[in-house]
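Notebook entry, structure prediction.
Reason for the run: the old model in the group folder had no record of what sequence produced it. Starting over properly, with the input documented here first.
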Amino acid sequence: MSDGARIWRAGDKSIALDKPVVIGILNVTPDSFSDGGLSFSPDDAVARALQLLADGADVIDVGGESTRPGAQPVEAAEELRRVIPVIEAVRARAPHATISVDTVKAAIAEAALSAGADIVNDVSAHRLDPRMTEVCAAGHCGVVLMHSRGGVAEMASYSTASYGDDVTGEVCAELDRRVRVVEDGGVSKESIVLDPGVGFSKRTEHSIALLRELPRVLDMGYPVMVGLSRKRLIGELAGITLPADRDPATTGGNVYALLAGARLFRVHDVRSARQALDVAWNLCRNQRASPIPADR
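New structure, fully documented this time:
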């Protein structure tokens, strides 16, 4: 499939994947691993969202439950209190923005879609709440299915990071099972994006193998999003301890993933990601023999 032909359907939005799509992270949590508490108040969160849009974000991803190592699940009522006022306010201040909600709970997804969200980003790929598929099908929203294992408290740890000789093959097989369930439940293929879940239920060597074989994930026939931003993998590869200092190193990983075929990039530092990915994209696309593979 040519680059110009691939569209991600998200409600009444059509997101063209003929260039890198930058998804700005907006954590409205007190305990996220690198920016917890920075946008915890609704006013701070809305200001941050508007800044992310000004910096070049194509999508704002609002999350009210941390998935950092050791994180504990958040009650639905508290998660609603955190995310819904922010989504409503961002929709009012930026009517044309594309908004995603990062949640594993169908009740949160349903309320977020009613409040103006266009996309549901579920790090459990609808494993933890089977009603999620029903909600997404009824809402005709965009859907991100991320590979992980275990619950919210385990998925960012190594407790389920047990793989054989073919990490990528296992990840693709597990994602494929989730895709079949979600499509059978009424979500259209054109609405689905896959995230291989770098750093989730994976040791560093597993994530490296997965990134090096990213074209195999693309061969499943769906657009691919990567979330490398400030993660432990990036810190280990670059020798950087503090997550907030890992943005330049994150950019290196994102450009690598772009060359491997990823089109969507979930990041904290939108401005740097936007500039770096656009430069890499335009330089490669202007070559007679582009190293960037066409969309599957």
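Summary: The radius of gyration is 17 Å.
The old model has been moved to the deprecated folder.
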